[in-house]
Amino acid sequence: MKYALFIAVKDLIYFFRSRFALIAFIIMPVFMMLMTGYMFPKMQSNKNMSIVVFSHDKGFVNMIRDSEVEGFTFVESEKELREYLIEEKADAGMIVPENFLKSVLVNKEVAVKIIPSPSNPQMAMSASQGVMTTLGSSLGGSKSQIEVKLENPSGGEFNYYSFMAPGIMAMVAIMSVVNGLAAAITMEKEKGTMDGIMTTPIPRSSIIIGKVLSQTTRGLLQAIVILLLAIFLFGVSIEGSLILTFFLLILGIFSFIGIGIIITAGAPDQESSQMILTSITFPMLFLSGVFFPVEQMPTFMQYLSKAFPLTFAADALRKVMIMGASLSSIRVDVIALTIFAVVTLLLAVPLFSRLTTT
Amino acid sequence: MEEIVIEARNLTKQFKQVLAVDNVSFRVKKGEIFGLLGPNGAGKSTTIRMLTALTKPTDGKAFINGYDVVKEAKMVRKNIGLVSEKIILYDRLTAMENLMFFAKLNNMNTKKAKKRCNKLLEMVEMTEWKNTRVSRFSTGMKQRINVIRSLLHDPEIIFLDEPTLGLDPQTTRSIREFIRELNEQGKTIVLTTHIMVEADNLSDRIAIIDHGKIAAMDTSKNLKRMIDNNETSIIDLDIPNITNPMLSTINELHCVEKVFNKNSEEIRIYMNCDDPLEILITLLKENNIPVKGIKTVEPTLEDVFIKLTGHEMRDNPGKQAENRFENRRIR
């Protein structure tokens, strides 16, 4: 037992001697507390919720307009409804079937579909309740025959996982690339093989670009594995273009890789670089909207989430994969990711070259 | 006129706390084997890293074939090959894959690179292992591949940082022979080592380096003459049970310069007088010190090192000669 104690004490001393480890050790729990404290907000009231409606039943449109119910926006087609959701002009969508009013009048069973927003699928649940009440009150008590169905944009029963899969895919690709890059560079430094590369007359930037290429390939392969698992195990489908999906994945990787390079080049050893990376990627997991919709967070955390490129990558991927968004409707995300990528890489490549020659 | 291919001018490297290399200057002629001899941490590797453009000097300049190591690093790299202390090979790649990778970084086309690799593999008798992963090699085999890796682009100057560190005697011998062969082919070689014999046998000239400074630089012969000229005699005594009073008795003798314990039964005495043996024997008799054997020895580089630096060559250069119950000499 006393030997176990010696080992424990030695381990603790060893751990606390690393300055970086110590910083991460303090930051991590602070972040954890803040995150869990603010992440789950009070339930939002349905009043200020906006729902975009496409109705096959023109009578229903006129009826709602006449009774001046707030929060409904009417569009002319399902396509338009999707555009509304993609561009975040509405919190959820609703599709009303033909002969809706007629069916209600004869007390026949009838269903309206609620389409969740890609950026905030949780909202759809409150939306369906809200719609139920609103319809009930405007149609005068016959709500018992109206069914509200949550559906995936592509049809079929609502599948929450299909809203998470794109984000998880982006997250895994980005994280594995950045971690892999850090490991690959520090390994070469520590094993001494970096010296071998550096004594050949190649430009310094080739080293880092080569590393980025290999890690990106690896990250994409991993993303494909997740995609296949999502499709075959969880029945997720891809609505949008595959090319656009992979373009976004690559852009997502490039938007974050510069940050990884800067950390790796600056950190004294592998342990420290891993620690610093973790203290960035860990809050990123929670803040980037992969697991919890960004819109549900308090305002300051919504702003904070914009500091992580993953937020934009996950958002764009969700819109493309779930709603079949086109490049032009996700331009804001694409521009943000491009700025992240260009700025960090412009900083990182020369910095890497300089730091490796001292 | 002899061509100077390496020139270090007041090279200095300051790390955060340590002055690793302190104002070092030397020149190496074409076709020479130049040895940097010194204990671990003396600044040998840092000097090599500056000359191979891996580390920028804090102060001073260095030129390889006339190219500035800081300003013309790319040209410097074309002219040099490096065998560093760590083996520069990828474990999970085969010998051939490793060599081809580095050949291609040196801008060789596939055909030329293959030919060169095969030729080099043959030179070190590793042809039959070329498609085996490096992780399955012994340290000796790895080092052989590591050495030819530095020769892929046929550089004029080869830097070898402790090339025989951790190798078995047989591989050590073959690596040394290979170094000599390379030199005969006209390569200029800079070799660092903490092994006296290695520096002595291989180098045309030796710089003895300690605490980041060059203590002396000359041919092995001339370095040893520093001791002969001073008329210092080196005598080894074989005493079964050495006691401290015995040591102080010997130490107090007027012409004794230094006394070292080589091991528990042997001491080495540096004396400076006309007839050291006779004086010593008289002293031993008078004090009843039982001696099993007595002999004079030719000076070695280690003696030169001790003479110059005042301490033995060991892993920690900071330790002074008082800690002397260890014999690091390799015969």
Can you give a write-up of this model?
The complex is a heterodimer of chains A (358) and B (331). With 358 residues, chain A is of the alpha/beta class. Chain A has helices at residues 2-16, 19-39, 58-66, 78-86, 100-105, 121-139, 160-191, 193-198, 204-234, 242-266, 270-287, 299-305, 309-323, 331-355; strands at residues 51-55, 72-75, 92-96, 110-116, 146-150. In chain A, helix 6 links the parallel strand 4 and strand 5. Chain B is α/β, with parallel strands linked by helices and 331 residues long. Chain B has eleven helices and 14 strands. Chain B is elongated and about 80 Å long. Residues 315-331 of chain B have low confidence and may be disordered. Chain A binds chain B through residues 191-193, 195-202, 357-358, and chain B through 52-56, 74-75, 77-78, 80-82, 84-90, 102, 105-107, 149, 153.
Please name the defining characteristics of this protein.
heterodimer; A: 358 residues; alpha/beta; 14 helices; 7% strand; elongated; B: six-stranded mixed beta sheet; four-stranded antiparallel beta sheet; 34% helix; 26% strand; disordered C terminus
- Tally the beta strands of chain B: 14
Strand content of chain B: 25-35%
Largest sheet of chain A: 5 strands, mixed
Number of helices of chain A: 14
Quickly describe the structure.
The complex is a heterodimer of chains A (358) and B (331). Chain A has helices at residues 2-16, 19-39, 58-66, 78-86, 100-105, 121-139, 160-191, 193-198, 204-234, 242-266, 270-287, 299-305, 309-323, 331-355; strands at 51-55, 72-75, 92-96, 110-116, 146-150.
Q: Secondary-structure blueprint of this entry?
A:
The complex is a heterodimer of chains A (358) and B (331).
Chain A: H1 2-16, H2 19-39, E1 51-55, H3 58-66, E2 72-75, H4 78-86, E3 92-96, H5 100-105, E4 110-116, H6 121-139, E5 146-150, H7 160-191, H8 193-198, H9 204-234, H10 242-266, H11 270-287, H12 299-305, H13 309-323, H14 331-355
Parallel strand pairs in A: 1-2, 1-3, 4-5
Antiparallel strand pairs in A: 3-4
Helix pairs in contact in A: 2-11, 7-9, 7-10, 7-11, 7-13, 9-10, 9-14, 10-11, 10-13, 10-14, 13-14
Chain B: E1 4-14, E2 19-29, E3 33-37, H1 44-51, E4 59-64, E5 67-68, H2 73-79, E6 80-83, H3 95-105, H4 110-123, H5 139-149, E7 157-161, H6 169-184, E8 188-193, H7 196-202, E9 205-210, E10 213-218, H8 220-229, E11 233-238, H9 244-251, E12 256-263, E13 266-271, H10 276-286, E14 293-297, H11 301-309
Parallel strand pairs in B: 3-8, 3-9, 6-7, 7-8
Antiparallel strand pairs in B: 1-2, 1-4, 4-5, 9-10, 11-13, 11-14, 12-13
Helix pairs in contact in B: 3-4, 8-11
